[in-house]
Amino acid sequence: MAYDYDLFVIGAGSGGLAASKRAASYGAKVAIAENDLVGGTCVIRGCVPKKLMVYASHFPAIFKEAQGYGWKVGDTSLDWEHFITSIDKEVRRLSQLHISFLEKAGVELISGKGKILDPHTVEVGDKKYTADKILIAVGGRPVKPDMPGFAEYGITSNEIFHLKEKPKHIAIIGAGYIGTEFACIMRGLGCEVTQITRGQKILKGFDEDVRDNIEAGMKNHGINLIRNNIVKQVEKNGNGLKLTLSDENLAPLNADVFLIAAGRAPNVENLGLENAGVNLIQGSIEGPGYSTMNAIAVNEYSQTSQENIYAVGDVTDRINLTPVAIGEGRAFADSEFGNNRRVFSHEDVATAVFSTPEAATVGLTEEQAKGKYGDNVKIFKTSFRPMYYTLPGADERTMMKLIVDSNTDKVLGAHMVGDDAAEIIQGIAIAVKMGATKKDFDATVGIHPSAAEEFVTMR
Amino acid sequence: MTFDYDLFVIGAGSGGLAAAKAAASFGASVGIAEHEALGGTCVNRGCIPKKLIVYAADFALQNQMAHQYGWSQCDNYFDWTRFTKLVDKHLDNLNDSFSKQLQKAGVDLIKGYATFIDDHTLEVDNRKITADKILIAVGGRPNLPDIPGIEFAITSREMFHLPYLPKRFVVIGGGYIGIEFASMMNAFGCKVTVINNDELILSGFDDDVRAHIQQSLTKRGIRFFHNSTAKEIKLCEDGLLVKIKADKQATVAADTILVATGRTPNIEKLGLEKVGIELAEKGTIKVNEYNNTNIENIYAVGDCSSSLQLTPVAKAEGEAFAKTVFGKTPKTVNYNEVPTAVFSRPEGASYGMTEQQARSEFGDDVESFKTEFKSLLSQFGGSDEKTLIKIIVKTENQQVLGAHMVGEHAADIIQSLGVAIRKGITKQDLVESIGIHPTTAEELMTL
Which domain does A373 fall in, by range? Predict the structure, then answer.
């Protein structure tokens, strides 16, 4: 039977775009459906606009530090509208750029939401398209726990990029990287910030030293952390909001913006999965006010329970990161259309938290390493004030840590908190993934003076 | 025969300090002589104060960028005199900390200039000191070309103590020192001219890096005279005049002229002839792979003996020497993969072979991959300056031989990638790596 397309991709985010272009490069006839701006979470309401906000949030500190270098700096304030508009413009420019990449690759872009009617048919609007293979890459979305006032008064990371004015006091729930990043961004921009976490510490899953160092930096910057608490209720209070905390000894919080960064859910609804026998598995979010989350179940080749239907990216809830979605998408295209059957490895995926201080990490945490190798783990750690901060006398530190298997000398994990951590860990991550030993690190000559040289001079 | 010390080190710069502390850690009794501030060129008139000026100059650039991000423009003013005082204070602190480190390591510090009397005897400040082994780590100093009026020019040493910022700044020399100062002074608003004796600046770096930085600096307003040399400097009513010899003659007016045309080892007053220490062709002290001079018990490390005048190299040599001689583990330094950076704006950094080096070694069996892109940080800016990343690959086995970059964080990114290159990665390994998004470094995977 002849189909309209060799591949039909639902969702033009990081994973879908990568897969469709790669498949087209092998000569496959490919269409991609998107009901929003092309680019997905990362480009439209994630990584990219967030990082631009991070950059903007650093300037007030830079102005302050400049004074330690002999600069006299006058008062400056942020033109919020200019800032938000510039980000929006950049996002739209990038979205257009992705459309032009699709055109160049010969991928047909179809505007609208794709719904599966049967294993080989997708409906978009009132049109039906048939395809040999279907790839689901519809991503995820932030969710709001079902608590009083959350739906009406809470915003998520989707809305934060379009705030009409700069918050005076923003309250944030969530201890994950999204909540932590926005706490730092908003603090840098000059807002009062309160971050409320259910547990004792932010950034569960990261190395304890990473968690502690970020937290110390955040507190030092004046972020108010309320631990072991949940927001039970949000009410309107004059022009602002009143947040009631679970700890009754704590007074309610008054804030003008309430950001919910308490997890994301795969967009599995209204896709017609049931029409094609695509199975779900239970997702990973839990907590008060949540119902069960589902993700699309896939094997290591990103294949669903329906053999010609595949899924990549956040909708499968494996590791929810842009480069992973891209990697999964490309591995799928290589396997199915490029005559190169391969599995995308989810091991040793490097990741960063663009908090201030920034953190980045690859491989095992100390805890994981000790769990796996027991006493045969050696830790190398350094903490120092970077040269940049010496003249301003700022209390900013950088922490670097290597986890080494003492039997094989292999570096199992590398962790850093401090300026440019992500840029520095990127290269280290390649070395770690390649099985570099501590000896390899030591044998690398340093570049002086740089921050990264500390990674090759740890003794 | 017993000596005052197992090891006496002449010069407390990067190489000497590293060697002294390492030797002491192996149980040797160690003395070190220094007639100036501890820390040598790097700490007192090199890497450290230079990087601090780079940071100070960056604020001028960041201020423009802040405006593009929506921060209102504000009055600001840079007080050079205040800045140099702050730097001096910081360097004093560093000096104290070096002195404490030596104390803690059990190394005797002797203030003064050491000269040789014989193989085992030195004179420092009218005092004779004997030692079993002697390490020369006296570093180098800037060259002064032999041209009329050179006394009106200054070297990098004096740059850190300029009484005020010049309006018109001329640099003689297109090496990394000259280019870094040209870049900083340009950021501070000085009118900068560079006189370079080659077609491209930054000899030794990959040609693409050289061309890229040169173009960027030109766009930022620095004027270059290529294939040119300074012939004469004259004092005039309005400042200084440099006569330039190129295809055609030219004269440039300046308030400050920096000479950065290479460095010379500080060996003239050591009395090397008394012990018969041989020199290499370039005038540096001749050493073997263990940093041993032709005299069995005398060694040399760092800028006075090395062809690679870099702090981490001097340190590595000093530590290797101490391990070999006192730690009973012979160790040599690998000079093949020494990364280096130029802290101009834009910044450049390199690890491993340049394309030119690779082609001269492997001929046609070499491929290069290059990407140029606008970084996310500069998306809002008016500038169209691009980041450059380039890797050199051996075609036959796809091994990455070198990596080169121009742009934000180049030094940090290349340093980390260096560990992977050292590990022997192939181009395929690089491309299949997973990025950290959004970073500049992830662009490595698009090569």
Answer: 357-456
Residues of A in contact with B349 (CB under 8 A): 447
User: Is the CB of residue B342 less than 8 Å away from at least one CB of chain A?
Assistant: no
Active-site annotation holds for A162: no
- Supply the pTM of this predicted model: 0.95
Q: Say yes or no: B419 contacts chain A, CB-CB below 8 A.
A: yes
> Strand A253-255 vs strand B168-172: parallel, antiparallel, or unpaired?
unpaired
Measured distance CA(A21)–CA(A103) in Å, rounded: 9
Residue carrying the six token digits 């060129």: B41
Q: What is the pLDDT along chain B (447 residues), one digit of tens a residue?
A: 699 999 999 999 999 999 999 999 999 999 999 999 999 999 999 999 999 999 999 999 999 899 999 999 888 899 999 999 999 999 999 999 999 999 999 999 999 999 999 999 999 999 999 999 999 999 999 999 999 999 999 999 999 999 999 999 999 999 999 999 999 999 999 999 999 999 999 999 999 999 999 999 999 999 999 999 999 999 999 999 999 998 778 999 999 999 999 999 999 999 999 999 999 988 999 999 999 999 999 999 999 998 789 999 999 999 999 999 999 999 999 888 889 999 999 999 999 999 999 999 999 999 999 999 999 998 887 678 999 999 999 999 999 999 999 999 999 999 999 999 999 999 999 988 999 999 999 999 888
Please name each of the domains of chain B with its CATH number. 5-142+264-325 (3.50.50.60), 150-261 (3.50.50.60), 346-446 (3.30.390.30)
Question: What is d(CA B293, CA B37) in angstroms, rounded to the nearest whole number?
Answer: 26
Give me the amino acid identity at B39: G
Residue closest to A70 by CA, chosen among B79, B261, B31, B119 = B79
How far is the alpha carbon of B258 from chain A, nearest alpha carbon, in Å?
A: 23
**Residue B142 preceded by cis peptide, ω within 30:** no
Q: Is B75 on the interface with A (CB under 8 A)?
A: yes
Residue from A84, A423, A442, A459 to probe the interface with B (highest B Cβ count within 10 Å):
A423
Does a structural domain hold residue A36? yes
* H-helix or E-strand spanning residue B130: strand B127-136
